Amino acid sequence: MNIILLGPPGAGKGTQAKRLERDYGIPQLATGDMLRAAVASGSELGQQAKKVMDAGELMPDELMVQMIEDRISHDDCKNGFILDGFPRTTAQAEALDAMLQKRGTALDHVIELKVDEEALVDRITGRYSCANCGAGYHDRYQPPKRDGVCDDCGGTEFKRRPDDNEETVRSRMQAYRDQTAPILPHYEQQEKLKRVDGMADIDAVTTQIKRILDGKA
Ligand code: ADP
Ligand code: AMP
Q1: Cα–ligand 2 centroid distance for 173 (angstroms)
Q2: Can you give the pLDDT of all 217 residues of the chain as single tens digits?
Q3: Is 58 in the pocket of ligand 2 (CB under 6 A)?
């Protein structure tokens, strides 16, 4: 099953993708995570990505398309994948269609998480993750069960993204409105777009998505 989770920064794509990865056995392909790994490695790509991400802008399409094309050719994607953060422009969406067609496959579901803009800033500025395993948390909405201890791996070190500050969030939302939201009609025309209420609590959002994936909605 090939799935895209779409929605503005902070909509809950990563949170839901990790749950679907676990429950459906298909990998989460998060371009933001791939770029952060490049930044951490100090590579040339990482240096470019750092500047773009800190400004809340988007990386060049060709680079991102190549990154995804390489990634979906890995063996672990043979039964499908969950795209999180890609595509983000019409050019990326079109390139994805072409690349899947070439591979004899297609998208099964494009799921948009609808969240009010005021809630997004709140979600993003409270977001943090486990420095060891990457599990995601929120100061108020998703704290670990034991204060300061990761639920998944027991780690006690946590980190926040440098671009999760209010100023950068505004630029990222502008990029979403200007460059990413215009791809929604692309998937509407293909009759693949389904919307879920991303304002609901995390479990309720998962339930809505699973109903779609299981053909019950
Ligand atoms: P995205 O990947 O779309 O940028 P995340 O999944 O990282 O968004 O979620 C952003 C923040 O909001 C995280 O800290 C997460 O814990 C929290 N969050 C995710 N979904 C919900 C929800 N339905 N209700 C409240 N908080 C949420
Ligand atoms: P995310 O983790 O999805 O919030 O992405 C973090 C940042 O990485 C974005 O603000 C962009 O600068 C960059 N990025 C991630 N995915 C893409 C993409 N598909 N196209 C362009 N830039 C991207």
Answers
A1: 11
A2: 999 999 999 999 999 999 999 999 999 999 999 999 999 999 999 999 999 999 999 999 999 999 999 999 999 999 999 999 999 999 999 999 999 999 999 999 999 999 999 899 999 999 999 999 999 999 999 999 999 999 999 999 999 999 999 899 999 999 999 999 999 999 999 999 999 999 999 999 999 999 999 999 8
A3: yes
Question: Which of 4, 6, 13, 15 maximizes ligand 1 atoms within 8 Å of its Cβ, making it the mutation to test the pocket?
Answer: 15
Pocket flag, ligand 2, residue 17 (CB < 6 Å): no
Instruction: Tell me how far apart the alpha carbons of residues 90 and 112 are, in angstroms, rounded to a whole number.
Output: 15
Structure tokens given for 125: 């500025």
Of all ligands present, the nearest one to the C-alpha of 18 is 1
Give the ligand with the smallest distance to the CA of 121.
1
Structure tokens at 27: 């990998």
Dig out the tokens for 89 from the structure: 């422009």
Spatial neighbors of 201 by CB under 8 A, at least 6 apart, are none
Q: How far is the CA of 146 from the centre of ligand 2 (A)?
A: 31
Distance from the alpha carbon of residue 104 to the mean position of ligand 1, in angstroms? 33
pLDDT of residue 217: 83
The torsion defined by the Cα of 199, 202, 207 and 213, in degrees rounded to 10, comes to 90
Give the type of residue at 25. G
